[in-house]
Amino acid sequence: MTEKDFLPESYENLPTKGKFTWKAPSNIALVKYWGKKPVQIPANPSISFTLDACATTTSVTFEKKGKAGDFSFDLLFDGKPKEDFKPKIHTFFERVQAYLPFLKGYHFIIETSNSFPHSSGIASSASGMAALSLCLLDMERGMVPDVNQEYFNTKASFLARLGSGSACRSIEGPLIEFGVHDHIPGSSNLYGIQYPFKVDGIFKTFQDTILLVHKGEKQVSSTVGHQLMHGHPYAGNRFQQALQNMDALKPIFANGDLDGFIKLVESEALTLHAMMMTSMPYFMLMKPDTLAIIHKIWSFREATQVPVCFTLDAGANVHLLYPDHVKQTVHQFIDEELAMHCENGHYIHDRVGLGAKKINS
Ligand code: PMV
Question: Gene3D superfamilies under this entry (predicted)?
């Protein structure tokens, strides 16, 4: 599908007022998206597990205005006005308005909250942009007859991408691919797709414990990090490597090859951070406790042969990935060895999930 396929033809029955609520999960990339072209076109394909517990719930209440003017909305986070989120939403409205041309005719009240603690260092842009896109698209669904579910999900992913690239992987689950790859049929730079190849059942029960090493704001945003891939000395090789890793994942997923999975996923995480450390200006988001945790994971895996590995987002927190059947052993390892490296001992047990859900409002 191209951009044109997301332009609505005409609307019938514009509603006077109403409300929609959606809950959308976060996701964790296995092959990382780092580097983009305008507007939110990824420099390489990526793939993520959709999460379950870490999610954003957003309600959009709308009322038709007397006459269409500029965008008009109030934003509440945890029930309180949140002015500093508004510019991001305004930019999002500007980017999506061609695809949702009713936006300027309404006043919106956007109420949003996260299941994970505020400023836990977990990025809420993916889940937040996915939930907001779903609410707005649900509103459009009432004005356009015969929208099928597949088109709805694809357009939701397309809109979410315009808010935050990785958000396009938060509409469905359990494994979502984003970005053109010649060997992945249906792959697109415009939206995420269900990973189209065989995936062994073991990957559908994967657990992700997020070890909260640092809960504060990051010193360098992912927007800036993406930009620093322009003119980066290793960018070309990195994008090639991501393409190869997507190919390498195919037999890993099909055969339930946990050793192959661990090697590839940990290498991707460290490569992402290596790109940050070799950017100009250079920066580093890992903390001493991030490294301490990584070394303990390696020692534990060596000693026990338990298939547990880590990945990293653009931050200091560590995502611990492991199959469901080793949960008890890994939870004991976390409590005894890893929690001491987390801020206030905090971590979040999450797992692979199936995507966003509509909440009756
Ligand atoms: O969606 P953005 O622009 O915040 O970029 C996400 C970048 C990473 O989280 C580091 C990697 C990824 O693929 O999710």
Answer: 3.30.230.10, GHMP kinase, C-terminal domain
Give residue 94's identity as a one-letter amino acid code.
Answer: E
User: Ligand 1: which atom is nearest the Cα of residue 164?
Assistant: 1
Domain 204-351 classification at class level? alpha beta
The token duo for 122 is 């977990």
- Which pTM value belongs to this model? 0.97
Mutate to test the pocket of ligand 1, among 26, 95, 222, 319 (most ligand atoms within 8 A of CB): 222
Q: Is the CB of 34 under 6 A from ligand 1?
A: yes
How far is it, in rounded angstroms, from Cα 279 to Cα 275?
6
CA of 272 to the centre of ligand 1 (A): 10
- Å from CA of 303 to ligand 1 middle: 33
Q: Which atom of ligand 1 is nearest to the CA of 32?
A: 13
* Long-range Cβ contact pairs of 294-297 (< 8 A, separation 24 or more): 294/318, 296/337, 296/338, 296/341
CA dihedral sign, ordered 232, 234, 237, 240: negative
Cα of 163 vs centre of ligand 1, distance in Å, is 12
Question: Under DSSP, is residue 24 helix (H, G, I), strand (E, B) or coil?
Answer: strand
pLDDT digits (tens, 9 = 90+) for 225-259: 999 999 999 999 999 999 999 999 999 999 999 99
How far does residue 42's CA lie from ligand 1's centre (Å)? Answer: 10
Q: How much is the mean pLDDT over the chain?
A: 96
- When the candidates are 3.10.150.10, 3.30.230.10, 3.30.390.10, 3.40.190.290, the CATH number that belongs to 3-199+354-358 is 3.30.230.10
Question: Is-contact 214 343, C-beta < 8 A?
Answer: yes
State residue 119's pLDDT score. 66
**Domain ranges (residues) in the chain:** 3-199+354-358, 204-351
Q: Which residues pair with 112 in a beta bridge?
A: 58, 77
- Partners of 41 in beta bridges: 37
**Hey, how many other C-beta atoms are within 10 angstroms of the C-beta on 248?**
16
Tokens of 262: 């661990």
